[in-house]
Write a structure and sequence with these properties.
It contains 8 helices and 7 strands. With 251 residues, it is an alpha/beta fold. The protein has a single domain, classed as Rossmann fold (3-Layer(aba) Sandwich), CATH 3.40.50. Strands 3-2-1-4-5-6-7 form a 7-stranded parallel sheet, sandwiched between helices. The longest helix is centred in the middle third of the chain and has 29 residues. It binds nicotinamide-adenine-dinucleotide.
């Protein structure tokens, strides 16, 4: 799967899945712009990618802010001469039952998870369209199918699926594909931050009783980002160990 010589921007790549995707793309020969809202994370991942022999630059930006997104996309194109691959990875969770969910929990999760993907895709598509080539990979979640305590998170991820399908229709004629990955439970700092009993419940709801690793998602992202995936667009690929196959936890 070829991404050699391509220029990629991976949002929220200072940690977890994004970090794994940045490393995978760089290892396969793409130049990668590492982005995060936390500067120290950006610096660490850029240093790690370079130490592994890859090409990386870094830029701190809050991708819920249109002005910062436009500057981030411009900086990527300036650093590498073009922008071929956008991985919309940034995400957060604020789980609560519907009776306890605050308005702010809803607004924050929708902005970080969904609005960021709209803003980044819009800015990137303008450049990709002029090039006649682009790959947009949106990180959704298996949770878009529904999960307890995740009204805000699931709705944001369902919105990503709809956004993906619609942008695939609109951008196809410009040589841009748009696909989504729906991960299940993956071992990242986000997962590790959950209470122990929540983590245990999630583990026991897995068909294989094991959770995923960031590299599982990175391989899927590499496929959608590659030249070879030219005829694949508007799709959702579950990387969830089979958890999308049923609606309720095992008894
Ligand atoms: N870990 C899982 O089990 C899992 C499962 C399904 C989907 N996902 C999705 O995968 C994506 C990555 O999750 P993760 O587990 O790696 O999380 P993570 O918290 O480890 O990494 C997310 C990164 O995004 C950064 N970030 C947050 N808000 C930002 C903003 N406004 N601008 C720029 N950067 C920002 C954070 O600082 C962090 O470094 C998210 O979209 C998440 O919803 C994760």
């Amino acid at each position: 799967m070829n991404v050699r010589g391509r220029a990629a921007l991976v949002t929220g790549s200072g940690s977890g899945l994004g970090e794994g995707i940045a490393h995978r793309l760089a290892a396969e020969g793409a130049a990668v712009m590492v982005n995060d809202i936390e500067a120290d994370k950006v610096e660490r991942v850029v240093a790690d990618v370079r130490a592994a022999g890859g090409r990386a630059e870094g830029r701190m930006a809050d991708v819920t802010r249109k002005d910062q997104v436009e500057a981030l996309v411009a900086a990527t194109a300036e650093a590498f001469g073009r922008l071929d691959i956008l991985v919309n990875n940034v995400g957060t969770a604020k789980d609560r039952s519907i009776f306890k969910m605050e308005e702010q929990d809803w607004d924050t999760v929708l902005a970080v998870n969904l609005k960021s993907q709209f803003l980044c895709s819009q800015a990137a598509a303008q450049r990709m369209g002029r090039q006649g080539y682009g790959r947009i990979v949106n990180i959704a979640s298996r949770a878009w199918l529904g999960w307890w305590g995740q009204a805000n998170y699931a709705a944001s991820k369902g919105g990503i699926v709809s956004l993906t399908r619609t942008l695939a229709l609109e951008l196809g004629k410009y040589g841009i594909t748009v696909n989504a990955i729906a991960p299940g439970v993956i071992d990242t700092p986000l997962y590790q931050s959950l209470p122990e009993d929540t983590r245990a419940r999630l583990m026991h709801a897995q068909p294989g009783l094991k959770i995923g690793h960031p590299r599982d998602v990175a391989w899927a992202a590499l496929f959608f980002a590659s030249d070879e995936a030219a005829f694949v667009t508007g799709q959702v690929l579950y990387v969830c160990g089979g958890k999308s196959l049923y609606a309720t936890p095992a008894v």
